[in-house]
Amino acid sequence: QKYSRDSCSLSLRVSYLRDRPLVTLRVLDPIRVVDDSLLQINMAQVVASKKNPPLAIVLAVQYTKSTSAGVPLQWGDVTSLSLPSGGKVSEASTILRFIARSCPECGLYGANPLESAQVDQWVDFSQRKFHPGLLKDLNAALTGRTFFVGHGITLADLSIFAFVQGNAEHVSKQAELQRWSSALSSQAAVKSALASVPAQATAAASAKATSGKKEAKKDEGGKFIELPGAKMGEVVVRFPPEASGYLHIGHAKAALLNQYYQVNYKGKLVMRFDDTNPAKEDEHFEEVILQDVDLLNIKPDMFTCTSDHFEVILDYARKLIKAGLAFCDDTEPEEMKKVRERKEASKYRDSNPEENLKRFAEMETGSEEGQRWCLRAKIDYKSDNGCLRDPTIYRCRSEPHVKTGTKYKVYPTYDFACPIVDSREGVTHALRTTEYHDRDDQFEWFLKHLELRHVNVWEYSRLTMVHTVMSKRKLKWFVEEGRVDGWDDPRFPTVRGILRRGLTVEGLKQFIISQGSSRANVHMEWDKIWAVNRRVIDPIAPRYTALLEKDTVPLLLEGEGSETHSKPVARHPKNAEVGEKTVWFGKRVLLEGGDAETLKEGQRVTLINWGNAEITSVTKNADGKVVELKGKLDLSDKNFKDTLKVTWLADVEGQTPTPTVCTYFDDLITKEVLTKEDNFRDYINEKTKWAETMHGDPCLVDVKKSDIIQLQRRGFFICDQPYTPASGDKPASPCVLFSIPDGHSKTKATSGPKTDGAAASKGGSARKKEDDKAAKKEQKAAKKEEKAAKKEAKKEEKATKKKAESETAQASGTDKPAAAAAAPAGDAAATAEEKKKKKEEKKAAKAAAHDKKKEGKAAKAAATAADSKKVTRLGMEAKKSGDFAEWYTQVITKSQMIEYYDVSGCYVIRPWSYRIWELIKDFFDGEIKKLGVENAYFPMFVSQAALEREKDHIADFAPEVAWVTKSGLSDLAEPIAIRPTSETGMYPCYAKWIQSHRDLPLKINQWNNVVRWEFKHPQPFLRTREFLWQEGHTVFADKTEAQEEVFHILELYARIYEELMAIPVVRGRKTEKEKFAGGDFTTTVEAFIAASGRGIQGATSHHLGQNFSKMFDIVIEDPKKPGEKLFVYQNSWGITTRTIGVLCMVHGDDKGLVLPPRVASRQVVIVPCGITAKTTPEAEKALIAACHATSKQLSAGGIRCQVDDRDNYSPGWKFNDWELKGVPIRVELGPKDLEKGQITAVLRHSGEKLAIACDAKLVANVTDLLASIQKQMYEKALAERDAHVKTVTAWSDFCSLLEQKNLLLAPYCGVESCEDAIKKESARSDEALAVDPNAPAMGAKSLCIPLQQSDMPAGSRCIHPKCANSTDKLKWTLFGRSY
Q: Alpha-carbon distance 40 to 35, whole Å?
């Protein structure tokens, strides 16, 4: 009777309950289903923790009490939901959902599926760590709404209400959130729930808070120096960062120190942006800094900017001028620097105030005249303190200010503005680092002479960390060079970086507090901060298990308790509040290989969180590696003292390990402390990030982003990317964890069992690192031998001494040495003889010891030499199939093609690679001259006005344009651009030169350089800020003639790649999205890099149509229609030094560069061999002469040849050197070759050795061989390319084939939105990248529409599955990842 319902509601209820796992679907009677389900619900028990009351759960239970399906609640130690089956659920969000589903009539889960989804979203939101910044999202969600979801209270409201509790000061700042919170607080159920929290829970929390405050106060005592003249409630401090970068740990110290004094003196904290330099100020960085301050839980009382006071500061500047305490000066900066160093007065120092006011007024206008001047304070030019030698206080800046725009043309220096603003804003104590010490007197001088309220300056030490750079300029270099992932990279000292690596805000605060306000400057070890952080996270980090995926060994168990089952286990062994997790047990468990290697038959082992077992069998493979273990479980054995402790995971059906990636980091800088003389780039750590793929605990699927956990016996980790299950075409992504240092050691042991007492074992023999090489073993052996020699010598010396004493004692008839007894007169001669013998034996022992020591040193020296020889880094170290990026870097540097330069993104092109460019240039220049193209040169500088005329076209280049703004140290009246391309420089001239159709066609090419200030990741040859190219710009009266040239030039580019560089290319046309901005269409040649699976644009030829002629007014009289004007038709085409990079990547191998003969600087190198100590000078001379004669013969035949007769290198060293440089043929010529009348040719591309006769046909034979090499290299590259070009028509195949490093030929509709969607949806996720960090992340872009099109099958559609566009324009289009 109780559960009877009308049929409609009953059927709905049954449908709903059937979706729940608690329902037994075998029961066919709907009423029975309802009864069984509700019976199970009534049997479930919710327990709430007294120590940490789950307010959302208490509120939800309270809302169900008024119904018949009310859920009972009990108070206990740990929050949980006890199930009728005996299991437990500890996740708060899961318990909340259970309560809502148990009482559908309460409406806590919304009125429909859509509302239920919204409720889930807000419940998940409430599980985050509280941060004030999140309240803005909540406030926005409540705008115009009474509740978060629907028209009544739901779990969304209850969970968010609990989320914001205890943070009234933050809630009050958000109007909509404050309104909602007040309304919810007035609800009877909410009041009842809050009142139901046990008093003991409230008291415990209060006591804990009070205790924490007392402990903190006690801990802080004595570390902070009292501020002079400070009064309780009246202290005002300020934190004045410059918005030119992200906050780093040094800024965090400054901010937290100021907050400490704000809180402890119950005063105020002013947050002020120092925006006195418009060239550095960036609004984006202001937002970033405010967010970082929020992350640190710092609550300023006032937010200001120095620019708020610009007018007042100007008035104070004029006041100094009128008082004769400031003067205008136009001395050149370099000259002024020398004047100040000599402690001399400026020639303008004594100019009268009227003149200075007039000059300052001119400065304020920003005129060319005004920009010459600066304003200096007249303090003391003779002072020993350089900061007092008439410092600059105002200077002109032409850049617009982010807040005041162009209102001001003069800006104060920080040193002048700071004391004025501090005084005006009521600052009582200005905290500054000791590096500002010399400026303190200057600060006081301004306060005194401007008659400002006094401000106390208080110094503290600057925070400097070892192995770290703090300079924004240097940190920016790491970002721009792509050596880190961004400003929040875990290797960075930025606030965001260290928090992302796992440093907690509380840990950071405690570390800063432990440093206090001391003035002692020290270089702090990172270990200290991580040790402090460990104390914070250790009591609360849940424990999990993870095993190295590539090295696991099964352990097969038998015995009682080994059957498959699960049970709840505490996530933290010492903190029940952390909750519980479900651990599975079974007959087959996995151990890590390093642990397995240490186990023996009959040995007892402790499986952590389970019990003891005895190993009964160890199975090894042919290599002696353990592949399987068997054991017997003995849960009755409680003796864990002398057992090996190992981590494990049960291998049971249905419980798949969570795919997990553990990422580790190292210091970016190898040197502990950098001096002013050090170039930080000389100390870059090349290997700072590596990852291990793991089998993770199944419970790791529940770990959320930013959760801090501990992997047993591996250390602490922070979740950077949570596990995401597979969805549709997208595979599952692993849980990505970042290792958190613990302050003890840089590298934590990851293998070998944990043990106690006598069972201690280092274990993990399978884990020995690569450092245990033969050379080191030899060194160790040498040291051991040397030590043994010393020990043996001492032993022999001691034995000799003892023997002599014994013989002397026997001779004297006593047990004491003869020296202790009076020797008879008759034995005097015997005693003297014994002494002499003893002396000789002692001497012999010493000699023996010396010889052994010498042998030890020799062995050590030999080992050192062997080690030294072994670690030479002249050759290739990286593998092309491994770390491709590192391989490429080594190839281009070690083969002497490139040299790094001290301007980021710019490189020195060395002769070995420049010769390749020359050969390309020679070929192409000759071919275009056959077409009537002439070479010219146009200036590299472009006026701003000219660039603006082409703003639509130049839009793509705008972020990359480099500007010249200064001449010497003076600002230019107008900035001048350095050409990113030459249209804007050439076409105004074309407009002058072309007056009629008789002046056409005009065909001009120039070989030059361009600058594009790329801010992505510069790569030598591929993407550089300055590069060499040719750019052809031609003009025609006839459109057809112009278009024909486009394809003619394209074919020349294809010949460069295929005939010169042996690289196959696809000739094609760019899509509308990818074409050259401002052109009618773009053609391209596309190459393929097999090692990375990416395409690369080789060269482009554009038909510009009439777009640019209209823009630059290049007009003629139409020859076909006299009297009518005709805008001319134009083309542009170019190829760059990128070609050299493509050549390296396509043909290079693990030994270095491989050059096709036609572009090789040296096609043949001759190395004299077989010269030994027995070779006579005459024979050696004859051999060298023969080498040069052969070289002369080959050179005369047009073969580029060189003899390597360097006498300071061995032939073997030369072989490796030329192999690294990629010379196509190495000729080895020795005495035996001379006797046989032959040369030995070694082919670089294949390693093949050939004997070639030294006769009249030598040149012809070598020429044919070079042609054969060229052909074979092309065929190999073509086969490799064709094997990776796949034709696809289904989207499911598209993504999978793309991941296999292929280019994809697919039907495409030509619509840009589809192209964008293809690129976006085929991109790799961050999680996939974590598994393979070297893989490219971008999606597939259109490379080209091949000119050669095969028939499109009937019924074909665009490759993008959601495309609804017409199929009329379908084209086979080449897609792929690209450079």
A: 9
* Residue/partner pairs of 743-748 with CB below 8 Å, 24 or more apart: 743/527, 743/528, 743/529, 743/530, 743/531, 743/532, 743/533, 743/534, 744/527, 744/531, 746/666, 747/664, 748/714, 748/715
CB 1350 within 8 A of CB 1317: no
Average pLDDT over residues 1272-1277: 96
Cis peptide before 1001 (omega within 30 of 0): yes
Residue 52 has pLDDT above 60, yes or no: yes
Considering only CA atoms, give the Rg of the chain: 40
Q: Which amino acid is at 76?
A: G
136: number of Cβ within 10 Å: 12
For residue 219, which amino acid is it?
D
Consecutive H or E run containing 884: helix 884-894
User: What is the three-class DSSP state of 405?
Assistant: strand
Q: Rounded CA gap, 246 and 263, in Å?
A: 25
Q: What is the pLDDT of residues 212-254, one digit of tens each?
A: 333 433 343 335 667 888 888 899 999 998 887 788 888 888 8
Among 151-165, 586-600, 665-679, the range of highest mean pLDDT: 586-600
DSSP string, 911-932: HHHHHHHHHHHHHHHHHHHHTT
Q: What is the mean pLDDT of residues 1114-1138?
A: 93
Q: Given the DSSP bridges, would you call strands 1371-1378 and 1341-1346 parallel, antiparallel or unpaired?
A: antiparallel
For residue 1327, give both structure tokens. Answer: 């999680």
Residue 1318 CA from chain centroid, whole number: 26
| Helix (H) or strand (E) segment spanning residue 410 | strand 410-412
CA distance 1067 to 1056: 13
DSSP classification of residue 581: E
| 1081 DSSP assignment | E
Q: Is the pLDDT of residue 896 over 90?
A: yes
- SS3 call for 571: coil
User: CA 936 to CA 917: how far, in whole Å?
Assistant: 19
- Is beta strand 302-305 parallel, antiparallel or unpaired with respect to 45-49? unpaired
Task: Render the burial of 1162-1178: b for 16+ CB within 10 Å, e for the rest.
Answer: bbbbbbbbbbeeeeeee
SS3 547: strand
User: Which amino acid is residue 470, in one-letter code?
Assistant: M
The residue count of the chain comes to 1379
pLDDT digits (tens, 9 = 90+) for 728-740: 778 889 999 999 9
Place of tokens 């964890």: 737
Query: DSSP letter at 1057?
Result: I
Residue 415 CB neighbours (<10 A): 18
Find all residues with CB under 8 Å of 593, minimum gap 6, and list them.
548, 551, 552, 553, 625, 626, 751, 766
| Residue, of 274 and 86, whose pLDDT is higher | 274
For residue 224, the tally of other CB atoms under 10 A from its CB is 17
pLDDT at residue 799 greater than cutoff 70: no
Tens of pLDDT, residues 1172-1207: 888 888 999 999 999 999 999 999 999 999 999 998
Question: Do the bridges between strand 1026-1036 and strand 1002-1011 make them parallel or antiparallel, or are there none, so unpaired?
Answer: antiparallel
**Structure tokens belonging to residue 650:** 């049960």
Classify residue 1138 by burial, with Cβ atoms within 10 Å: 0-12, 13-18, 19+.
buried
Under a CB-based contact definition with an 8 Å cutoff, are residues 628 and 556 in contact?
A: yes
Q: How far is CA 39 from CA 8, 33, 36, 83, in A?
A: 22, 10, 5, 12
Give Cα separations from 863 to 769, 780, 867, 1254 (angstroms).
19, 9, 6, 44
Full DSSP string of 1252-1290: EE-STTHHHHHHHHHHHHHHHHHHHHHHHHHTTEEE--S
Tokens 């304003």 -> residue: 375
645: Cα separation from own chain's centroid: 36
Looking at residue 669, the DSSP 8-state letter turns out to be B
If DSSP codes are grouped into helix, strand and coil, which group holds residue 1310?
coil
Closest CA to 77 of 93, 61, 88, 62: 88
